[in-house]
Specification:
This protein is an alpha+beta fold and 449 residues long. Helices cover 44% and strands 20% of the residues.
């Protein structure tokens, strides 16, 4: 322990300018975050927005510098001849990151909660979980990159290359892999990605300080980046729903709820996209308990012509309360099969909600047409709410924060007609299959508004 504290003291003495720069930037960000602080001067707005770039860079500089105080690249480093082991060294680095990165971030987030009317004690568990995701998705990958590079320049280029690969990969996925839309279940994917990044980065650091084989460490780091991208591009899979169902607080027999065809309406016009072909099939959800409301988290469609169907499908309700199963269909396939009898088979992942009180009971407060909540909202449903200008409807959020960002609050703005926030606690998650048809697709093609 004495040798670990000696290394820790040495690192703190050598890197005090980087520590001061990071803590000062973090404190400035906590005070001036545009999410909850109004800035009338546009110049000041641009300056505060610059913190979104400066803060992660200052964190990267501090983390990389401490990892490269005793370089793990090469076999002629001075620390190899000193009377301490790699265990002492890694323990000192871990203590440094805890003391000068994780603790300041935790304290700043706690102070932000207190200053904005939240109870930090009440959300203490969420704060701790957020530090885990912060370490898994930001801190340890930075440390791993610092461990396999010789200097700050190499670490910067390596981090830039990984960021470009991940950004381009996720962009290609969004454009060409519609199955990557997880509906209301993205927190499961983000948790798996965090677990992969945490284990991968820890493995890289362990291998580098025990074997000192930079090529192996860099190869493992590249493999982890590819694996993270692969997990990110996955479509929702069956275990994802099983994980979601762990958080049910009320026992509901999933076989009681049935999905059937609703013969009353003929077609829906409430589709706002003019790209592609959409069919809207009216359906009923039967035997839902009277005191509960149901919303769909994910819709999966199966058909004999799987290659002709898009994986983009969802369940929605219109103003009259009729529910529609909306399915995106390939245009060429639609023209070939629009008059042929088709059976729609698939399943719906449903969340059952118990109506509850005002948004303030969930850690939110409202100011004119804007309200502020913990980011992400803990297991809430939003209807006709705009998040930073983007529509966000019927979303079930994570039971714990999965964002690795330094900030903790998120701002939502509502239409000029007034807020239409519905803050209902989910009580059960069930999955139900359906078999509709035979139907003619041409009878249910959406008429766009």
């Amino acid at each position: 322990m004495k040798r670990t504290l000696t290394i820790f003291e040495k690192d703190a003495t050598h890197l005090w300018p980087q520590i001061v720069a990071f803590v000062a930037t973090l404190a400035l960000f906590a005070c001036e975050d545009p999410t909850y602080t109004k800035h009338e001067d546009m110049g000041l707005v641009q300056l505060t927005n610059l913190l979104y770039l400066v803060l992660p860079l200052s964190c990267w500089l501090l983390v990389t510098s401490v990892m490269q105080e005793e370089k793990a690249v090469g076999h002629e480093q001075y620390w190899l001849a000193r009377p301490f082991t790699w265990v002492d060294l890694l323990a000192a680095k871990a203590l440094f990151l805890l003391a000068f990165v994780i603790v300041p971030v935790f304290v700043c987030q706690e102070l932000v909660l207190d200053a904005n009317g939240f109870s930090a004690i009440e959300h203490f568990g969420e704060l701790l979980v957020k530090q885990v995701f912060f370490a898994a998705l930001l801190l340890l990958p930075m440390a791993a990159m610092g461990a396999v590079t010789k200097n700050l320049g190499h670490a910067f280029l390596g981090g830039l290359l990984v960021s470009i690969v991940l950004t381009l990969g996720s962009g290609v996925t969004a454009a060409f892999a519609p199955g990557s839309n997880w509906g209301a279940l993205p927190w499961i994917r983000e948790t798996v990605v965090a677990a992969v990044a945490l284990c991968g980065a820890a493995a890289v650091i362990y291998l580098q300080y025990t074997r000192r084989r930079a090529a192996l460490g860099r190869a493992v780091l590249a493999g982890v980046a590819v694996l993270v991208l692969a997990v990110w591009t996955l479509s929702p899979w069956q275990p994802a729903f099983a994980i979601q169902s762990w958080f049910s607080t009320q026992r509901i027999d999933p076989q009681a709820v049935r999905i059937s065809f609703d013969p009353r309406p003929e077609k829906s016009s409430d589709v706002h996209s003019r790209t592609g072909v959409y069919v809207t099939i009216p359906v009923r959800l039967e035997n839902v308990p009277r005191d509960l409301e149901a919303e769909s988290d994910w819709a999966s469609i199966e058909s004999p012509w799987r290659s002709g169907w898009s994986t983009s499908s969802w369940l929605r309700s219109d103003a009259s309360g009729i529910r529609w199963l909306v399915v995106s269909v390939d245009a060429d396939y639609f023209e070939r099969a629009k008059d042929a009898p088709v059976r729609l088979r698939g399943s719906l992942d449903l969340t059952l909600f118990a109506p509850s009180g005002s948004p303030s009971s969930f850690g939110c407060w409202t100011e004119t047409s804007t309200f502020y909540c913990l980011s992400p909202l803990p297991r809430m449903r939003l209807t006709e709410v705009w998040s930073e200008g983007n529509a966000s409807a019927n979303e079930v959020h994570s039971p714990f924060p999965t964002s690795p960002w330094f900030g903790l609050l998120e701002k939502y703005s509502t239409p000029d007609t007034g807020p239409t926030l519905i803050a209902d606690r989910p009580v059960a998650y069930i999955q139900r299959s359906f078999d509709l048809g035979p139907l003619r697709l041409s009878d249910y093609r959406a008429a766009f508004k």
